[in-house]
Amino acid sequence: TKAFTLGQTLGASVIGCHIRPHRYSPVALPSSLELPGPGNDEAQWQAAWKPKNAKAAGTAASTLFSKVAERHGYDVRRSPRALPGAVWMEKTGSPQKVIGIMGPVADLLVLSRPSAKGGTLARLFLSAALLQSSRPVLVLPQTAKRTIGKRICIAWNQSAEAAMTVAAAMPLLVQADSVSIVTCGPESRAGPKSGQLANYLKYWGIKSAHIATPGKDEYKEIVASYRSSASDLLVMGAYSRNRMSQLVFGGMTEFMLKRASMPVLMLHT
Length: 269
Known about the structure:
Elements: H1 2-10, E1 14-20, H2 41-47, H3 51-71, E2 76-77, E3 86-92, H4 95-102, E4 109-112, H5 120-132, E5 137-140, E6 151-155, H6 160-168, H7 170-173, E7 178-184, H8 194-202, E8 209-213, H9 218-228, E9 233-238, H10 251-258, E10 264-268
Parallel strand pairs: 1-3, 2-3, 4-5, 6-7, 6-9, 7-8, 9-10
Antiparallel strand pairs: 5-10
Helix pairs in contact: 4-5
């Protein structure tokens, strides 16, 4: 539903995609937010499916997509056009492979956050979207929110990841009612400080407020700042614990993906 709401706000088309495996294979899945390693991503994806459910799940997903599209005034089409519309697709393969092909040619990927218990399929989709698409990913909480993107909070740490995520979020930032920039601790890195980010936003006609926190507990401070500013979307960079292997998300990224209850817009570079 929120994908269509954002589509209306941005004047964009919405593409829904159902991905199913080639066949079933009884291979255990990882319980953490990890990207499947070389050679076993397809097996892990197959293991998350029960063959008797694959066809029914695709039909149910297509029906639901069409109903939600019509509810938001979107026509369901078979091919892309210049005017906003809804397109439904069904692909065969692993999320890593399919999203690696479709993700880079999308403006924004919208996914649901994995549930606290279970959520195996959601974890595979999320890790594939963040690591394989090179595009911004909007991670939505399990509990529906009334608005998204009206009051935006930027978690700023002077990194290239944060800067690229802000640039990717610009279509939403220019339409937001308020924008807050949160920094944790001293801004001692080599990258641009919050004041320089604020000036950059001014070129787009965006006014922002700065929230500075001590930096003793970044997780709690960012969440507290998000809530105190009555924000409905957090914008932050995503990076892995080991940038060379890109296997496991670490630190703030993992916390926001697993435990936070707010919508988060991330971009992994």
